[in-house]
Amino acid sequence: MGSKALVMTGGVISMTNHIFSFKNSFSRTIIIPKYRRVIRSCSTVSSGSSLLPPDVSRLAETARISLAPNEVIEFTPKIQQVIDWFGQLQDVELQSVEPALRADMEGDSLRADIPKTFENREAMISAIPSFEEPYIKVPKVLSKE
Amino acid sequence: MASLLFRGMLTHPPILDCIPSLFSRNVCARYYRMGTITQAHVATQESQSSQLKIPPNARNNSLERLLKDYEAIIGIETHVQLSTLTKAFCSCPYNYGSPPNSSICPVCMGLPGALPVLNSKVIESAVRLGLALNCKLSFNSKFDRKQYFYPDLPKGYQISQFDIPIASAGYIELDLPLEFGGGHRKFGITRVHMEEDAGKLLHSGNGNYSQVDLNRAGVPLLEVVSEPDMRNGIEAAEYAAELQRLVRYLGVSNGNMQEGSLRCDVNISVRPRGQSEFGTKVEIKNLNSFSSVNRAIDFEISRQALLLSQGQGDQIVQETRLWEEGSQKTITMRKKEGLSDYRYFPEPDLPEVILTEEYVNKIRGSLPELPEMKRRRYEEMGLGMQDVLFLANDVRVANFFDAAIANGAEVKLAANWIMGDVAAYLKNEKLSIDEIKLTPHELAELIAAIKGGTISGKIAKEILFELMAKGGTVKKLIEEKDLVQITDPSEIEKIIDKVLLDNPKQLEQYRGGKTKLQGFFAGQVMKATKGKANPGLLNKILLEKLNS
After folding, report:
1. Which residue from B103, B210, B343 is facing A11, i.e. has the nearest CB?
2. 152-181 in B: which are within 8 Å (CB) of A?
3. Domains of chain B, each with CATH number or no CATH
């Protein structure tokens, strides 16, 4: 069941089968003090984590964030640490627990099908950087990727 | 000529290399001609009757031959735009054709901090459609984020359902139109799930910019994915037509392909018959009518089967192709590198969707009689398949028919009147059956009046026209216009005698052998009685008198 939680985090940080040349020892030596402070309970980095190292270049591409090669190198271990922090969940014994779809929220929170016009359309429109009445002007993008 | 060439190709593969361009030109020409033939039929598509109207000769000979050796596996993904008053996750109204960007708010614009709240009508519509498609409902389902970047997607993700759709594993049953051989079909439905629509993206003609209209962003959709059970263009097109019929019957959507409230994408692969492995799957988009679904599939089957028969199966790649209505062929869209990674994860801003037995049963109880059930009931009532398909096609026509029967009208007669004179009037005036002044009760009265001999069939047609255009009752119209049929033989005899007296010359000609003049006399009697003479009696007595 722990693996299910991991699949979810794995989904967020898109894991691919791309094999990185970074070894785990590398990540152990580069431990930023700042991280130590934030992740209080993470005293030791799990050795030989069964989680795949993050493919940071692909991650950045899918998020449309441009990274220089040195930044890719710099960020990989940091992201690895976050993954390993979540990885602690794998230790939880979940054999007898029914998987939950969602964290429980109060009530249904549904809305009736009654139309209501938003009163401040002008404020939204004026906040659009390139608005050419009546359309929003955007760069031409032909392929959906 | 093309079929000869084709046969040559099947038996002499080496020659193929010289002739392919010639053949493809022929194929294109044939399909273009088919396009013009079916133009008139496409026009009738737009009318309220959603039946296919493609002539049978559109299935040309080479396609028939291809289908002997090759099998097409077809599945369809349909997006149904729900006719709710507000969008899926905010209270903005949605009206097709509103001025661009006039119906927006922070939620559907994806502005920071805005949170989605689900419209309860969306769940209701999803359950209705799921039940109508005989699906198993997921009493617990969730929403997920499907993430990709595109200018018409304000949030950078679409709220959809990924691994736990609200309905799955169902089926749909339909009857193929008689002009295509008829037959009953049952196609599986893989899943039905809820999601939101994106905005509209318009590419400027020149220039390096595009324009976005977010009116449509956030409008609720139901995606219906079929099992790959269809085998040819007709089955696929009729599946789409039946889905349209169904959503209209249920009232969850107006199902207009032209408006974009019903969108179909086709997935098709072709393999030699007998082969167990599937061929390469190709997706076809930009299908705007049932006939283009049909034609696009026929074209794609031909294209793929041709490549396979030439040993060039590797030229069929997994891709998305667009159907070009003008040239009547599919063309490659920009090739995608690799599969899309949508990075699905559960939507954190929305709670679980929970259904209760009580809720589902209530909805099940409120479902109207579905098209399939109606067709079976009409068949049992003794109507022929042609009548059944017509009457059950539009739910309003079916309701009118049912009401007329309930008012005592005879089944076959009511069907004939509705399919004949009433349908012709609706087509001419471009009205739906709800909009004419004729009521089912009066139609029943009209039929009874004919049966009882009060009026003749011809008079009835005139009354019908008046009833449809202006309303009123049969009884009153008969009274006002003095249309009661003359069935008294002695009265008819008197008029016949007068007519014969007034036309001695024609009488002589008749006695001399021109027996065709009986029609002339009958016409004169009708004129004298203002059409009220009972035709049967008239002719009987007339014949007696003429031959005496």
Report:
1. B343
2. 164
3. 2-42+60-267+279-336 (no CATH), 370-480 (no CATH), 489-547 (1.10.10.410)
